[in-house]
Design goal:
Layout: H1 7-13, H2 18-23, H3 25-28, E1 33-36, E2 38-39, H4 47-50, E3 63-67, E4 77-78, H5 80-92, E5 99-102, H6 109-120, E6 124-128, H7 131-137, H8 141-153, H9 169-174, H10 184-190, H11 194-197
Parallel strand pairs: 1-5, 2-4, 3-6
Pfam families: NmrA
Keywords: NADP
GO cellular component, one term: nucleus
C-alpha cells in the first residue's frame, strides 16, 4: 500500500504465478516458483552505498553502509553464482506447486556489514538514510529510484512481503534433499576487496 511501484518485484510478480496459472494451467500444475534473496555480489552495482570510506559521515577510515532500510530489518542473501543451481536442483526433487526463497541467511544490514568488517579487518558503520538521499547518491536517478524503493520495502513489509509460507534450504534439508549453500563469511573471503579498500 505504501509503494506506488516496486519495479524490482512487480516485474516478476506479473508473471509468476498468476500469469502462468491463468494462461497455462497445465504448466502451472507442474510449476514451483523460486525467488531469490539479495545477491551477495550486488555491492558491485553500487559499491558507494555498501562500503563507502569517503561519503556520508565516513570518518577515521570507517566504511559506511547507507541504505533506506531499517537497521533492524532482516534481509535474505544468496551467492547467486555458486548456489542458485544447487538450490533449483534441490527444488526439482520436491513435489510441484510450492514456493521458495533461495537464501543462505537473513542478517540485518548492520550484521551483514559487521561480517564484512570482520573478514576485511575494517571498521564499519551502518546508517539508515532517506530514499531521497539514496537517489542523490546513486549512479543515475532511475536506478536510485528503483533500488531505493526496494531497500525501503525491506523495512516493511519485508523483502519477501512477509510471506512466512516460503520454503527455504532448511526445508529442503528436512525433506532429505541436500542443499549446501555459501555463507556470507565464505563469500566475503573469496572476493578481491582491493578496489573497495583503496578508495
Amino acid at each position: 500500500g505504501g509503494f506506488g511501484e516496486l519495479y524490482h518485484f512487480d516485474a516478476k510478480a506479473d508473471v509468476f504465478p498468476g500469469y502462468v496459472v491463468e494462461k497455462h494451467p497445465a504448466l502451472a500444475g507442474k510449476l514451483s516458483c523460486v525467488q531469490t534473496g539479495y545477491f551477495m555480489s550486488s555491492y558491485k552495482l553500487m559499491p558507494q552505498a555498501y562500503f563507502n570510506k569517503v561519503g556520508l559521515k565516513a570518518e577515521d577510515g570507517t566504511f559506511v553502509m547507507s541504505f533506506p532500510t531499517s537497521p533492524d530489518a532482516k534481509v535474505p542473501h544468496i551467492d547467486i553464482n555458486a548456489d542458485m543451481g544447487t538450490f533449483v536442483y534441490a527444488v526439482s526433487q520436491m513435489p510441484p506447486c510450492k514456493h521458495y526463497i533461495a537464501e543462505v541467511s537473513r542478517p540485518t544490514w548492520p550484521e551483514f556489514l559487521a561480517t564484512w568488517g570482520a573478514v576485511t579487518k575494517q571498521r564499519t558503520k551502518y546508517q539508515e538514510i532517506t530514499i531521497a538521499q539514496f537517489i542523490a547518491a546513486a549512479p543515475d536517478k532511475p536506478f536510485g529510484e528503483e533500488a531505493g524503493d526496494m531497500f525501503a520495502y525491506c523495512s516493511s513489509p519485508g523483502y519477501d512481503g512477509a510471506d512466512a509460507t516460503l520454503l527455504k534450504a532448511a526445508d529442503l534439508e528436512k525433506a532429505g534433499i541436500a542443499c549446501p549453500m555459501t555463507s556470507l563469511e565464505e563469500y566475503f573471503k573469496k572476493q578481491d576487496w582491493t578496489a573497495v579498500l583503496e578508495q
